[in-house]
Every structure is written in C-alpha cells, then in structure tokens.
Design brief:
The chain has 201 residues and is an alpha+beta fold. It has two helices and nine strands, in the order αββββββββαβ.
C-alpha cells in the first residue's frame, strides 16, 4: 500500500518557522541540565568542606604528649566521628598554646581535663618540688597554690601565683608536684631548703 503525503507551500512554511522554536527548547533543556550539574557540584564541595556528611569533628593527639609540653597545631589532628562525646574537644584553637597536665597517648581523643586551664607564656616556668609526706591527691592539675619557704625559725611566702601541673605519687623516694611558676619567683623557690604548699583555689 502506498500512502501519498502532499505538502502544501503553507505546510512547509509552517514547519520551517517552527525550527527555531525547537532549537530554543533544546537550548533550554541543555541550560537547565548545566544548571543542575553546577548546583550538584557546588553542594558536594560544600558538604566536603563543612563536614556535613562526616559527623562531629573531634581532636585527637598526633603523637604522645607529656606533662609540661605546650601544644602546637601540628600536635593535633581533626577526625569526624559519629556519636562523639560532649567531653571531646573539637576546635584546634581551644588547645594550641595550652600546657599538657596529664600524659596523652598518640591517637587519643583530647579532653579539656588533659590541659592546664592557663596558656603557656614566656613569663612562667615549670618546676618540680618534693612533697615529702604530703598526699599528691590534694593537688589536682590546675589548682592554685601559695609556696612558702620553711626554715627553723620562720616561714616566708615566696610565690603567690603557682599552678599545679602534675602531682605524682612515688613508691620509691618522695612524692612530687610540678608547678607552673612566675619566672621572677624561680630563684626564691630554688633556694628554699623546704617548702609548704597552701591551696588557694
């Protein structure tokens, strides 16, 4: 069977006139596809950069850290985990410059309790003193103490701004306490034959 199709001049003209419209529709479809692609890529970049899909940021020690060390940015790494505890630290700026008050193993999550509440600076030094018969448990890290120099005849206050960094119980020898002292108090404390620590806060 043969089907004849007759195209009049008017029909051809109408088809020719419709071609630009078809091209326009095709261009719009391509434009919308490009727009959607751009939005999708932008979202992915934002998600990766913001940690949107990673969970909660948590700071971990990049190496073993010991009492008295001052934290640098290179000493911590940020890892995203699900269900992070509220006690874990998440902001690097919160720990850089702080003094370690208890030893931290490499790869351990960082908590505020690992650090002295005071930042390190050039005006302070660390000094370890013998506690003799004193119980180290009464000197928690961060505790402020006054240091008194003892003699046979009198007691003299030699430091009013000392901070406990660490107190250690020893089975061999005497117990000890490490203090953060003002550098200007160092000489008077070193020259003390015996000292007494008085907790002030």
């Amino acid at each position: 069977m043969w089907i004849s199709l007759k195209l009049t001049t008017g029909t051809l003209h109408a088809l020719v006139m419709e071609l630009p419209s078809l091209r326009r529709i095709q261009q719009l479809l391509l434009l919308n596809r490009a727009t959607l692609t751009f939005v999708a890529v932008a979202f992915i970049i934002w998600a990766v950069g913001s940690g949107f899909h990673k969970g909660t940021p948590v700071l971990f020690s990049a190496r073993s850290l010991h009492v008295g060390e001052v934290i640098r940015a290179a000493d911590v790494v940020v890892t995203y985990i699900e269900g992070a505890q509220l006690t874990y630290l998440s902001n690097v700026d919160d720990v850089v410059g702080k003094v370690v008050s208890s030893d931290i193993e490499a790869g351990a999550p960082l908590r505020q309790s690992h650090f002295s509440t005071h930042a390190a600076d050039d005006t302070r030094i660390h000094m370890t003193l013998s506690l003799d018969q004193s119980d180290p448990a009464q000197y928690a890290p961060g505790t402020r103490v006054h240091v008194w120099r003892l003699s046979d005849e009198f007691a003299e206050l030699v430091s009013t701004d000392a901070i406990v960094v660490r107190a250690t119980r020893s089975n061999v020898g005497s117990n000890s306490v490490t203090l953060s002292l003002l550098r200007e108090d160092e000489s008077a404390v070193v020259q003390s034959a015996a000292v007494r620590l008085v907790t002030v806060g």
